[in-house]
Amino acid sequence: MHRGQEKRALQAEMTERAQAPALDGQALARTALAAQGQWYRRVTARGHWLPVAPVFLDNRQMDGRPGFFVLSPLQLDRGDVVLVQRGWVPRDMQDRNRLPALPLPAGEALVPARVAPWPSSLTALGADAPGPIRQNANPDALTALWGHALLPYSLQQLAASPAGAGAVAAAEQTLQRRWPLPALDVRKHDLYAVQWFLFSSLTVGLYVWFQLIRPRLARNTA
Predict the structure, then answer these.
(1) C-alpha angle with apex 156: 150 to 159, nearest 5 degrees?
(2) Phi and psi at residue 17, in whole multiples of 5°?
(3) Which of 96, 134, 174, 218 could crosslink 128 through cysteines, CB 3.0-4.6 Å?
(4) DSSP states of 81-138 as a string?
(5) How far apart are CA 171 and CA 19, in angstroms?
(6) DSSP letters along 40-74, please?
(7) Could you read off the pLDDT of 127-151 as tens digits, one per residue?
(8) pTM greater than the 0.85 cutoff
(9) Is 49 exposed, middle or buried (CB count within 10 Å of its CB: 0-12, 13-18, 19+)?
């Protein structure tokens, strides 16, 4: 019950953060510990996209459909480089390796986003093969691929960048960005509590029957 209450409090805190006023881009955390206090806060990140190929994070779903999370590095005005989850695209069911062209705008970018943990890792049978499709977003692998150290968290882009036209605008429309807040499954803890209360009641009932009632009945019969 205590653990369930902790998760309810955490869920309320996440919802409150998501509804709080947007952070100033200069206030973004620089360490993992500081980032935890900013998770799910909205921010408009200002910087420019690094001219590198995106990474497509495999086996990610949106609305029950298989597809990819698209990852690109954004260099903030202050110099740090942050991993941006730009959005989700569906998998080509005829050719898994056929990926959409998703060009990025040149020049200054204003990216409406929210602060989020690093993309979750899925079970992998081995190391990712070189190429744009990856099973997991390994920080060391992405640093080596893009040539820049990354901040220890990510940004989930919430809307298209204000600037963009032609192929860039088309790419922005292709990406879907319905990022849900993590489900903490509080009901699971409530069910566990009910089970243990039932086990406790059963134990008490069995004790009363075998230690008190049954011996008394046996004496009365004798």
Answers:
(1) 130
(2) -65, -40
(3) 134
(4) EEEEEEEEEE--SS-TT---------S-EEEEEEEEPPPPP---SSPPPSSSEESS--
(5) 28
(6) T-EEEEEEEE-SS--EEEEEEEETTEEEEEEEEEE
(7) 666 789 999 999 999 999 999 999 9
(8) no
(9) buried
